Amino acid sequence: MDLSHQLSQKQTLSQKQIESLNILSMDMQELEEFLTEEQDANPVLNFVARDAPRTAGCSLGYDDDRLQTIPALRAETAADILLPQLNLNRYTQDEANVLRLIADFTDDDGFLTAPPEELSALYHIPQNFFQKCLNVMQGLDPAGVCSRTLEECLLRQLGYEKDKTLVAMIRYHLADIAKGKFQHIAKALKIENSRVHDHIQTIRALNPRPLNGLLGEKAGNIVPDIILTYEHDSWNVELNDSWIGRFEICGRYASLAAKTADAELREYLQAKILRIHYLSEAIERRRSTLTRIGICIAARQSKFLLYGEPLVTYSMTDIANELGLHLSTVSRAIKGKYLQYPRGVREIRTMFVQGFSYVGVFGEELGTNREEAKKSLKKLLAEENKDKPYSDNQLAALLKKQGIGLSRRTVTKYREELGVGGMYNRRYA
Fold first, then answer.
1. H runs (alpha helix) in 180-301
2. N or C end: fewer C-beta atoms under 10 angstroms in the chain?
3. Domain boundaries, the chain
4. Ramachandran region, residue 152 (left: φ > 0; alpha: ψ -120 to 50; beta: rest)
5. Sign of CA dihedral 73, 74, 78, 83
């Protein structure tokens, strides 16, 4: 009896921790949908949204009907999400190369696309050394990233508190769960049906594709999560959540929970009231974390936000240390969220850049300050001999001498983004 009670308690805590992280990861639209669903499921909750969240606009101060959607920068590869979480200066050159190799072999869903044994053999890397680097990558956010299988991905998201039967269900019975064979699972693991259903709820709260939705271009209207305005030589940080309105306990049900003689009804209502307290605390933690992140970004990147100057070196590790938060907390807090400022709107993740430059094992640019690199490229193109313009390979070599390591392919991409033609087009223009 004691053992059963202890397992049940751990499972409840695990679900709350997972949900708290999910709330932190929600953007404004997702949060609105979540609270609306909560009200439908909880009669004690009194939540009335005031207005819809504001859509992103070209500048602040416009009426809502004049706001325009602005495209925001998005991560293009798994490496764009994973490598900025690392300070590669802390690793040896060999370790950094393998870390970038693993990032390059991570697909858009967050899975390793080739077995570690094959990669270590193909690139002549000792298996123990490769596994050491893989452990580093698998410790990054989102949880479960760089796993080899779905089972491994889900198990890594459980953390350290792992119920043996829950682990067994993930390792051996995912197909049975998909087919709804719950009694078969209970019989195979010799547990009650209620425990099977409890574990299934935990599994469904996990993310089977860690990077899903973090890559590519976001369609539709952009709803900024943080709005920055600049007045009287100072920044004002506002969360786009004034629409939340009332989020409180219905007094009638609170009174009923205190006075009713029906034990079952009292227990039900008290559980719903505790649920509201928990959600209130989780949402307030979310608001506090986002506000603090907005304040730090405004202070560090003020010249970019106001004048479009290059972003200064500022990584997610830097802001995590500054705020006393874990790196994974910062990563979850900014996941899929947007920042609106006087000059436009950007995905918050793109506000963080490293202060060093690397070229990946396949020639991809990794960790380079994009704006600074394009600025340097633009200057080279403006100063070149018009009768003998540079090829993209020559431009890459010249940038490398300036300490900016870009591949030829990335130089071509940036040149096209600047609206400049190729070498032959410029020669005969």
1. 182-189, 193-204, 251-259, 263-300
2. N
3. 14-69+220-350, 78-204, 368-427
4. alpha
5. positive
Q: How is residue 211 written in tokens?
A: 């990077």
Rounded to whole angstroms, the Cα distance separating 279 from 93 reads 46
Report the distance separating Cα 365 and Cα 369, nearest Å. 10
286-326: pLDDT as tens digits: 999 999 999 999 999 998 888 877 777 788 888 988 999 88
- Who has greater pLDDT, 250 or 319? 319
Three-state secondary structure call for residue 229: strand
Backbone φ and ψ of 423, nearest 5°: -55, -45
| Dist CA 240 CA 290 (whole Å) | 11
Q: What count of residues does the chain have?
A: 429
CA distance 179 to 26: 29
Mean pLDDT estimate for the chain? 78
Q: Which two tokens stand for residue 362?
A: 């396949």
Which CATH entry fits the domain spanning 368-427: 1.10.10.60, 2.40.50.100, 3.40.50.720, 3.40.50.10170? 1.10.10.60
Of 209, 242, 236, nearest to 223 by C-alpha is 242
Residue 70, CA distances (Å) to 28, 55, 61, 394, 424 in order: 17, 10, 16, 34, 33
